[in-house]
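Q: What does the assembled structure look like for these inputs?
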Amino acid sequence: MSEPTLLVLAADPPPRLGRLTGRVRVTYADEDTLAAQLPLSDALLVWNFTSDAVRLAWPGEGPRPRWVHTPSAGVDRLLCPELAESDTVVTNARGIFEVPIAEYVAALVLAMAKDLPGTLELQRQRRWRHREGLGVAGTRALVVGAGPIGRATARMLKAIGVRTALVGRTARTGIHGVRDLDPLMARADWVVCAAPLTDDTRGMFDARRFDLMQPSAHFINVGRGPLVVESDLAAALDKRWIAGAALDVFEHEPLAPDSPLWDVPGLIVSPHMSGDTVGWRDRLGEQFVEMYELWAAGKPLPNVVDKKRGYVPMHDDSPD
Amino acid sequence: MSEPTLLVLAADPPPRLGRLTGRVRVTYADEDTLAAQLPLSDALLVWNFTSDAVRLAWPGEGPRPRWVHTPSAGVDRLLCPELAESDTVVTNARGIFEVPIAEYVAALVLAMAKDLPGTLELQRQRRWRHREGLGVAGTRALVVGAGPIGRATARMLKAIGVRTALVGRTARTGIHGVRDLDPLMARADWVVCAAPLTDDTRGMFDARRFDLMQPSAHFINVGRGPLVVESDLAAALDKRWIAGAALDVFEHEPLAPDSPLWDVPGLIVSPHMSGDTVGWRDRLGEQFVEMYELWAAGKPLPNVVDKKRGYVPMHDDSPD
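A:
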């Protein structure tokens, strides 16, 4: 067998890829040259995982990579009907982002409970104004999304004393199905969205659902922007249907300087960074190299995406 | 036995005190009238616990309250040599502040790890700038102070994945003695001060100790202001000896509007609020009423301060 061709969507070589030198022919593509190179490649590493180029350039028929890897948790930017229907295997970066995102959500919950944004604003004004924080222990969280990120987040929130329920697509042991979402939202102090973006989940957090929440409750999105109807969230905060919110992901990223979201009262805006901790690119490169070695040896790959569902199923995920 | 006289240092009646109606004669004092009323009182509730008045007004000899209760964790504002040497029992509010302060410290650790202050400042400027957070799991914390607040804080930090060491006055099972403080500070990512203010601990965090810390490390004080030499901390941040700090307590409170601490780079200033969560005054009032009932019945009181040491000893605290 001749050296396989690995196509990398990236301007610069990802870290750790040098370890494969001599065992694979690596070529690089940008968004413009991707379509021409896809038919010539055996595997594709979508290093520039925020790009829509793969979805746009994926060949309908004929030669194409047999394996596509994205160094991200979500695969929503990648999947198109042609790729979903093909026999090309798609894998993701399960294992890298779980704990960082869980920590980030805990940071937001605790910061909102203790009004850290208010403290920092008062500090800027050199004003000493004592306030009472919220006790976090014994409050209720609802984590929406029962994949590894949602589960790690639920574990972290439980660890800091929050009574946490988890909602997934289907009910399983310890996990509520989507049918329980509305009643659980109505009694949660913290609603955390960590769901994948699919046709089923797009826009699931809308005015009707924010209206279900308690006026004292907070909403956090670390999933994907389009899970939330942003204008509905802004209105819910404006009308004080809910007490606060934090968005790390947005319908359009980067958020435009003139977006009204920047200064919605009670909304924390962060630049899609919840999963990205020092060394993350190295870890993603390492993970890819390990997966490449399995693939080149003809061994089964981990983290295989169910392309119909749009995410990597968990071991306890029931079939459709 | 005639009705005992309970003197309350407060402008307004504390919550829950009405439950004692008919069983105790309650009188109120302010800072000016305290000295005259102390000799006439059987018990003293220092509801206004931020006042220095008790220390200043405590009678040297002669009649005085047999019991003094402060609804705070620290007793540093209260104790004077005459009170320490008398047979008056002093109690504190152990049990109320532990979990709130532990949560507050976790909020600060996570917020600093994820650069939430930077995120909020960028949001104000409507700037999208992706940054990498620190992974908190596996980092090292040192909690100084092995009382219930330090222990609750250590438990909370361990719960979020931080390897946490605890330093107390003397070494005990699972707790380092003060001798280990310097080497432990040198390798900690997070140094948290939750120690009582005593003659031994005043000024313990000074230039020499900040210089021991790693340039990537952070310092947090939720104990008492004078444990830290504030100008040394400001200099350590200024010279980048350490990466960041958060002070919830200060040498002089409230912090003056012209204090240079308000805008030391990398320093979070909060208004002594770490232990104060919604409902805390009610809980403090309830705790006092329960303790009053024990005292009036001649039963032993919990939370009795060792007036020589300046705090309530733990069950595993060795004698001098």
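The longest strand of chain A covers residues 5-9.
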